[in-house]
Amino acid sequence: MDDGRTPPHPHPGSVPLQQVLEALVDPVRRGIVATLIESDVDVKCGGFGMSVSKSTATHHFKVLREAGLIRQYYVGTSRMNTLRSEEVEAAFPGLLGIVERDG
């Protein structure tokens, strides 16, 4: 359902590997992905404990979303984040396991 607030999400298989790797090269973004790998629930943007400004955090989430790594949606006023594990694994087998080991 498009509520007008949820941004577009490309399918991971349509994103070039180079873009995905560039998204993961940043330690803050790798930390976001590692947190989502370890979490049993989706995490709101403010729940990552990042030591960056809100605008910088927004940029990091956008890069991950545009790389097909995360899906964002709203619950009330909170923007939630979920890792697109199955889709990413299908497009780039083993990639998330590397991030998990590194994180």
End-to-end separation in angstroms reads: 33 Å
**Low-pLDDT regions:** none
**Strand order in the sheet with the most strands:** 1-3-2
CATH class: Mainly Alpha
The string of secondary-structure elements, in order, is HHEHEEHH
What's the mean pLDDT score? 92
CATH architecture: Orthogonal Bundle
Task: Tell me what the structure shows.
With 103 residues, the protein is α+β, with helices and mostly antiparallel strands. It has a single domain, classed as Arc Repressor Mutant, subunit A. The protein contains 5 helices and 3 strands. Strands 1-3-2 form a 3-stranded antiparallel sheet. β2 and β3 form a beta hairpin. α2 packs across α3. The N and C termini lie far apart (33 Å). The mean pLDDT is 92.
Summarize the structure.
By secondary structure, this protein is α+β, with helices and mostly antiparallel strands. The chain has helices at 17-25, 27-38, 54-66, 85-91, 95-102; strands spanning 43-44, 70-75, 78-83. The termini are far apart.
Question: What does the secondary structure layout of this molecule look like, with pairings?
Answer:
Layout: H1 17-25, H2 27-38, E1 43-44, H3 54-66, E2 70-75, E3 78-83, H4 85-91, H5 95-102
Antiparallel strand pairs: 1-3, 2-3
Helix pairs in contact: 2-3
